[in-house]
Amino acid sequence: MNFQFADYLIVAAYITAILYIGNFLSHKNKPKPNNAVEDYILAGRQLTLPLFVGTLVASWYGNIFGVGEFIYGRGLVGWLCFGFPYYIAGLIFALFFAKKVRSYNVFTIPEQINLKYGRIPSFVASVIVLVITIPAAYILMLGFIIKLFTHWDLNICIIVAAVLALLYIYRGGFRSDVLTNTAQFILMYIGFGALLIFTLIHFGSFDTMLTALPEAHKKLSGNYSIQIIIVWFIIALQTFVDPSFHQRCSSAQTPSIAKNGILVSIIFWMIFDFFTLSTGLYARAYIKLDDPMMSFPALGEAVMPVVWKGLFLVAMLSTVMSSLTSYTFISGTTIGHDILKPLQKRFALLNNINTQTLIRFGLIVSIFFSVLLAISLPSAVGLIYKTSSIAVPGLLAPLILSYFKKDYIKKKQASIIMLTSSSTSALWQLFIFLIDKKVIILNSFVISIEPMIPGIIVSIILSSIFVIKKKSNVDNIKYY
Asked: 29 in the Ramachandran plot: left (φ > 0), alpha (ψ -120 to 50) or beta?
């Protein structure tokens, strides 16, 4: 993208504003916390409805380049895969789980697992959450955006992205993340809304655009079979174990705000998805690209004037930075609060170190390894997204069952489910890799199945066996 001086000023103003909000505004008139750890991890559980919606929506769109690539390559089916299933998953979570998450008053997913199943399953859950939340992919994406307007070396841009992620959440914790997310939420809608308006002015009506699209792009199912679309609906189950989702529900002022906040967020997801779907289709209709990931930047370059182009760049920065800081903070919390804090009694080196310091150390560790991954394996960082397919099956059943008062599975069984389910998905992913490298020859059926699916199937089977077995044991007890 080509930028003018005014565009650079807008980007500079954005970064300045975000740093001010995160480092200073978040501490202005801040109430004295009753619990310093709760305040740092969950903003004192004081999220109002607007703040809840702002931070949840903003942190949900970090893979904006992937969305653009999918719509450019596949068309309307992008909404059916990336949009609609998540509305359904979000609705179910809001109606049946949001209030439960808030009512348990725990800080993190591993702490919830510990509450229900004990330390060993909690440690397993901590490792899984860490795998999901390591923010290397988001650092890489932010590095790419920085390179768009600076033309610096990508490695330098990655380091700058990492520093930006730490500059305000290190001191302010989740409160800083929430306030900056809310500002980024507003900028996301301004930028992508403006992109759609300028696109309509430049290229004409939707009807005109649709005539220029390939036929497959206009089909709701694209060229996908029903089976593949069902797979995408199953993938949306990751909503139930997403640490960012749980953190925000735990941070709400009341259980009702947690529930209603998700319902309102679904409406905003629909609006933003309309922006991205429409502009992605316009990019496919009128712009020829070698790299579909650049569909949104290329469209912005083609239709937006000076100043507005800068605002659109800020919108893209906002979508990625909001997810980057959110997942960086969760991974740092997982390292400090869920892994290191339980070890304090066993290791003298960790004694007398408060939880906030442990979390800040976790933030540095998370960022350090994320930068190494992004720099050394930029072509393979996409594999980090595959880790979700490996991790989600392990957490899904034990976490959902933990929110019911009745003990459906035993402590050891929770560990078995997590380890076996995640291992199944990992082995499936390995098979796909070996097939791709021609190391082994298997039917193409294996390649067509997302690694998350066999893991979830194993999780469901094991959970059903353990639940039925426990119920059977209870029913067989003789009372005299």
From this structure: left
Distance CA 191, CA 179 (A): 19
Sequence-distant (≥ 6) Cβ neighbours of residue 415 within 8 angstroms:
117, 120, 121, 124
Q: What does the DSSP 8-state code read for residue 252?
A: B
Residues in Cβ contact with 65 at an 8 Å cutoff, skipping those fewer than 6 apart: 141, 144, 293, 294, 296
Dmax (CA) of the chain:
86
Q: What is the pLDDT of residue 384?
A: 57
What pLDDT score does 45 carry? 94
How many angstroms from the chain centroid is the CA of residue 416? 26
Q: What is the pTM of this model?
A: 0.91
Please tell me the predicted confidence (pLDDT) of residue 346.
Answer: 82
- Neighbour tally for 456: CB within 10 Å: 23
Q: How far is residue 145's CA from residue 125's CA, in Å, rounded to a whole number? A: 33
Quote the pLDDT of residue 478: 47
Query: Could you give the CA distance from residue 90 to residue 138 in angstroms, rounded to a whole number?
Result: 23
Instruction: State the pLDDT at residue 229.
Output: 85
- pLDDT value of residue 1: 74
Predicted local confidence at residue 441, as pLDDT = 59
Domains delineated in the chain: 5-381 (1.20.1730.10), 386-480 (no CATH)
Low-confidence residues of the chain: pLDDT under 70: 29-33, 378-385, 436-447, 470-480
Q: Angle, nearest 10°, between helix axes 295-303 and 64-74?
A: 90
* Cα-based torsion angle of the residue sequence 8, 14, 19, 21 in order, rounded to the nearest 10 degrees: 160
**What sections of 43-133 are H helices per DSSP?**
49-58, 64-74, 77-82, 84-96, 98-103, 109-117, 119-133
Q: How far is CA 37 from CA 40, 43, 257, in A?
A: 5, 9, 22
Give residue 453's pLDDT: 87
